[in-house]
Write a structure and sequence with these properties.
With 209 residues, this protein is an alpha/beta fold. 13% of the residues lie in helices and 24% in strands. It is built from three helices and 13 strands, in the order ββαβββββββββββαα. A hairpin with a 2-residue loop joins β12 and β13. α2 runs antiparallel to α3. The radius of gyration is 20 Å and the shape is elongated. It starts with 22 loop residues before the first strand and ends with a helix. The relative contact order is 0.13.
Length: 209
Amino acid sequence: LGDAETLGETGLNRFRNIGDKAVRKTTAGVVAADYNDWGAYTAEGVGALLQGDVDADGFLASELTPTTLVVRAVANLGGAPIADNALTVSLANPTQPATIDPTTGLNLLPGVADGAHALRVAASGYVPYGAVIDVAATQTVDEVRLITVRLNGPEVLDLNGLGGVDAADIQLIINAVLGLAEGPYDVNGDGAINATDVQVLVNGALGVL
């Protein structure tokens, strides 16, 4: 019913109008049921809806609506979830910061209409991500939209593979912007190699990611 490893295939279910128990577990083993909106938003309230060995400690403490965009940030290297106070998620035009669900760490943007939206995701120690996304093309789970953003760590900034980020890496990406070099230099993952990537490299060299 809900597992961090398979969010999108499990989880983000919206339980409503439950007369008694939402889940009854009568056989051996534990049912993983994290990342769900049970219609109750406290541990006590969720627990009252479950019977048997059901692990729902990672319940959503915030309501999901059909127009909620859920943004999950993971490390590109290894895929570990990034969920801490240094993580910021927002949409632009107009600026709409996400709220972080306190029990799951998922970033929630309610009331997002279909169409193109500029999404920005930043976390301490990672390369900021910025891209225009088509909300209608994101994954839909029980009417809720889900997008997983993979953030690159500082290792992607070592463009020449010599260890560390320095002036030589910055020169490489400037050459790429000028069309004088080719390579995997889209360090922020927005689909273009431009001045933003140069700034990310400079920040990396200064240690201010």
